[in-house]
Each structure stands twice: as structure tokens, then as C-alpha cells.
User: What shape does this take?
Amino acid sequence: MTSASRVRLGWEIGIVLALSVGRSAFFSVLSFLQAITREESLGAQSTALNPGAATVDPWSVVSQGFSQLFNLAPVALAIYFLWEPGRSALQRIGLDFRRFGKDAGTGILLVLIIGVPGLGLYALGRALGITVQVGAAPLDGAWTAILLLTLAALRAGLTEEVIFIGYLFDRLKRLGWGTWTIILSTAALRGLYHAYQGIGPIFGNIAMGIVFGWVYHRWGRVMPLVIAHVVIDLIAFIGYPLAAAWWPTLF
Assistant: This one.
């Protein structure tokens, strides 16, 4: 790769990150720094996931639904940059349905490997007072809230796995980065992306990034990672609020 090509590719990566996970990571770190400089401890603070999803106003539901769809534009941009004449970018990164059964099985296995320990890290962080309380949106809006939260989970899964894994692995490899340098770097960025939740989720998401990065390096498919991510988020966004409503004494 020529020097000019490397510079152009560097600018491309910077633009994609600035429009997506890089921008979110930057503001997430700012939120974390703001939280640790407050007088109250991290454990005494809270943050909300998808707070507007509980709305029952039909125009707000429509607006939020389309907002989630437009938020997928950076994903489409990353896939566009990966596209080459005669070679589908979706097939290159394994974001297709050719092996959906196997991908789904791998995704569920990853949920067990990553999701359960992740909940444990969150609980440990809360017990140690180094993780903020993360509140899921209430499901007062019934099916509309479930619809919006499902769209939010799909958006998060596609955004993080396509860009952190599919796009960055390809681009950084072209710049000459080694496999484990890419895995650890993207995992660290994933951790910073979730820094607003506190120290526990930072390390939990770094671990998730390492496992997901290794899985992608081993099999070259993003689809099982997207499936696992969406299922984990659905459990967090929908499963937990439902469980808390049905069994309040346990939660």
C-alpha cells in the first residue's frame, strides 16, 4: 500500500468512527469523567437505557422508530466502503443468511459465555460501588415499547459488530496491524464506548470484545456476533423490566 493510500484509508477510518462508535466512545468517556468528579460515588449514580421507549404517543413512537433506522446509516457507510467490484461486502464479513442455523447456535453459545459473566461483573461493580445503576426503560407502553426496544437492540448489535469487528478488522489489517493488536484495540474501544456505565461494564465489554474478536478471526463471520449482541440487549432492555414487574420481590 502506498503512502497516499494509507493516508486516505486513515481518513476513511476516522470519518466512519467520528460518525458512529468513535463519537459515542468520546462522549461516553466524557460522561464517565464527569461522573467520577461528582461528590457522590459511582454506585450512587444512575443512567437510563432508551428512556423514551416508554412513550405511548404515536408520533413519538414513529419518530423514534425512524430515528433508529437513520442511526444505521454509519453501518451502511462502513459496508459501502468494504464493497469491492464483484465481491459482496456482506459475504466478506459474514453478515448474510447462508449459515443462519449455525450462526444462531454460535450466537446463543456466546450469550451464555459473555452475557452471564457480564451480569456478574455488573452485579460485582454495583456491590463495590464502581458501577452506576443502569435502568432499563419501563414497559408501560406495552407493544410499542417492546417494538422500540427491539429496534434499539438491532441497531446496537449491527452498529457495534459491523463497525468494531467487520469494518475495523478489514481496514486495520490493510494498514498492517497484527491480529491481536486489532483484537485488543477494538476491544478497548468497545470498553470506552460503554464507559458511561462505570468501571464494571468497561472491563466486561473489553472481555466481550476480545472474545468476539477471536471468534471473528477464527470463523470470519459477523452474523453470530450480531445475534448474540441483539439477544443480550433484548434481555437487558425487555427481559429485565418484565422480570422486575412480574417478580418485584426478587428484583
